[in-house]
Design brief:
Helices cover about 55% and strands about 5% of the residues.
Length: about 130
Amino acid sequence: MADHMRADLVRDALDLAVKRGLTSEDAIFHADRGSQYTSGLFRSTLAGHGIRPSAGRTGSCFDNAVAESFFATLKTEIGTTVWNTRDDARRDVFAYLGYYNHDRLHSTLDYRTPHEARVGYRRGLTLVA
C-alpha cells in the first residue's frame, strides 16, 4: 500500500511474492493495461523472474472479474472505515488478507480457503519427463 500507483509499487509487490515462494516457474501475471503494468520497469521485472505477462482487451470487464470480485468482497467485509493513518489502514487490510487467505471458505474452491487450494494444487502436480 502506497500513496502512488507507480510501476515500482507493483514491481516491489511482485519481488516480495517471488521472495516468499508464491510464484511458480510457469506463472502468468494477468493485469489490465494500466501504465504501471505496461511499463518497461515492470516488464523487465516479470522477465527477470521468468513470469509471462498477460493483458486483456481494453474495456473487457471479464478479464478482471476475479480481481473485481475480490475487491468488492474486501470493501463489503472490511466495512467503510475511514482510517486516521495509512499505517492503520495497512494493518487492517493485512489482517483481513490473513483471514481471507487462511480462514474464509470459498464456494468456487469447493469450500476451501485460498491457502488450502494453493497448497493442494502444488501437491497435486505430477512432473513428467
